[in-house]
């Protein structure tokens, strides 16, 4: 690089980045430039100058040093030529900071300290500052206060120069080591602590305190960034003073310390003390404790997180920290704690002028406070039960949150990177003039942006200069911080965790067992075993579980079956332990945790489905996606996925998987009250029909490929609840198979082909599985189980015309094409319409058959010992009551009233009321009962995990069904039973009156 620069030879100083018209004059005055160009001996200095943030500013600084110390100039030039360390450090400082350049000019020879490798810790800084204020003058008298302050100011500024030079040197000389963010802020903090100690030493001397330790004790407690060891170059240093003994003397010492340090180094701010600026500057330990226990506000505990003794009486300081420790780490239990912290952040943000909000590094949206507030809130909430989180440092606290699983690894890494970037920008801005500023330059300030970018190390990209790249980077980091801040800071789970008492966070103690019993767990010892299994070890997974379980235990306690919910949660967690996003979703999405807890503590069907369809878990946080899918779209995507499979078995496996996903999605939305019962039934029916269509298509394609053609067209006709789009979670699919021979194919050949296809579909779908059954039931076909599985369309026409019975006409009222050849399905409907909608309705004899048949079905099929008032299907006012009455009226009137030609029971009731056959009040009572019975039947399946027609009459199942139907946890489940009986009793009365005429 050096040789490349040498070859440039003579020319303009602009070659080295100088733009000031005075640059050549300054270079000539230094003896570095002639008419031939630069002197060869100092080319390396010029190359280094070209790398600094502002070459013109650095050259002016050198020119000023030459003017004030001409005798020392040759030594400086020689050192710059020979020492990359001094060259990088000195030029780096001169190229960015006018304030530090003024210090160097005002104190000739101070540049020599940049060649020394000395200690950068608190002890080293303290010794140097104490030496500066304690040194005696030549005549043996003690320094005056003004002299002490001046000496402290010079010593402090010299050490600050060393820190800045070490921070900037690598930007000029790349071979120099770049200190980390933590190293720089740690050095700045150590220097501030040393200054407080030196200031206290001056105060003791100037106040003439004799026997100080016998009269009073004073401890200086660092707060804010000093307490967190993350100071800026220019910061107020927040402190709290704790005294003992003579408080008047302690207050005098504290006030003098603040003045001395304020005049020499930085402002010392004690506004974080109890009662703020209006409160006593120094309080006793007991006074602090009394205030914090009785009067302190939430933000004060947030500030106390960073409290750390840094000067004065070490024992008193340690006692103070010990006293506040329990207060700080129980603050999250305060009422509205999380909301208070969130409100405080909004209030701080609201104080930023609107025109500055996008440039404010500290307080604006996406600024440093966004990170700090989010980290502190998470620390205060989770740190009660995890001492690893109790760090006063933002960066260390964020790292601990990431390591413990409270924040995602990627989120923690991104947030740390962006936070350090903004802090670096802040440091460089403050170094310019050693003034406290947090305002990013405006985009119109091109020169300032370029200097700032070069000081940070930002490089140009393509046609964008350093300043433009810096603006893009700044906005990117600010947007990332804001996104993650809103994700973490407003996480709903935080309030739930904060509401858990601190003792309850200790999950495996005897007190935990007692608390579980008090919460309603029937087997608290068993619950503790589940907790131990979930939190065992030191893995990240165990840490996340440890954070989640206190909340989950409370949430399960509000469900009908807390023990079952916790057991299901353990099973789901163990089944999904290798699913990388599982615990992350629970941790980051409070709504998901709350909804999952309700589902697991209410339903036995959901956990079984969830372990095989875990992707639905991610939908729990988005109600619109959970409940808003269009059944037609679901059907299309399911069929397309099945068709893409290479073989029969994989096609069926895919169909089962997608049906499982859809059933779980619907079940979750149903349990959470996001879908009404008719939408649930339509979605389940659509999924069943799609499975049939997809499987039938794959089987047909395989058979056609085997025999080289299709001897017949096939259509599947949905019957019963499938035909009415009224399927429940445990319903079979009642169907008819109809075929039509291809040209040149006999009926027998067509039926054999179609029967083989239909039987294969039934076997594939009906094979044993852990999922709810996929039974294809064709018992409603002509001649029932004794008849052929498949008939041709002509055979159906002939059978119904000659042999069809009234119950078959009744069954056909719900016939609907669901799969296969749609055109054939439409023609089948045309064949059966005269059968199910007979001209002139039913004669008296056939109507009597329907009534007798209903009575016989209810008598013969009602389970022995069943309560007829609580049987959803065959009980009084149940599904059969309403459906038989509706179907009788359809058989009688649908021919002349096409509005009644619907397969839907609620749809037919609405039509009957519309045309006046049934009174609107009666239709409403029947609809209410039918919908209620359907809901209860579905709810019972969800709660028990298996189909049942009997309403639970006692126990957890009854409580769970009541909860699913909208009753509150504290309600008496008997009220639900009474309501069910009242509703169905009214409907039964209407059925008795209308059905039996």
UniProtKB/TrEMBL annotation:
Gene3D superfamilies: Beta Polymerase, domain 2, Nucleotidyltransferases domain 2. InterPro entries: GlnE, GlnE_rpt_dom, NT_sf, PII_UdlTrfase/GS_AdlTrfase. GO terms for biological process: regulation of glutamine family amino acid metabolic process. The keyword Nucleotide-binding applies. Involved in the regulation of glutamine synthetase GlnA, a key enzyme in the process to assimilate ammonia. When cellular nitrogen levels are high, the C-terminal adenylyl transferase (AT) inactivates GlnA by covalent transfer of an adenylyl group from ATP to specific tyrosine residue of GlnA, thus reducing its activity. Conversely, when nitrogen levels are low, the N-terminal adenylyl removase (AR) activates GlnA by removing the adenylyl group by phosphorolysis, increasing its activity. Keywords: ATP-binding, Magnesium, Multifunctional enzyme, Nucleotide-binding, Nucleotidyltransferase, Transferase. This is Bifunctional glutamine synthetase adenylyltransferase/adenylyl-removing enzyme. Residues 501-997 are annotated as: Adenylyl transferase. CDD domains: NT_GlnE_GlnD_like. Belongs to the GlnE family. It is an enzyme of class 2 (transferase). Its EC number is 2.7.7.89, 2.7.7.42. Residues 89-320, 594-830 form the Glutamate-ammonia ligase adenylyltransferase repeated domain. HAMAP family: GlnE (MF_00802). GO terms for molecular function: [glutamate-ammonia-ligase] adenylyltransferase activity; [glutamine synthetase]-adenylyl-L-tyrosine phosphorylase activity; ATP binding; magnesium ion binding. Residues 1-493 are annotated as: Adenylyl removase.
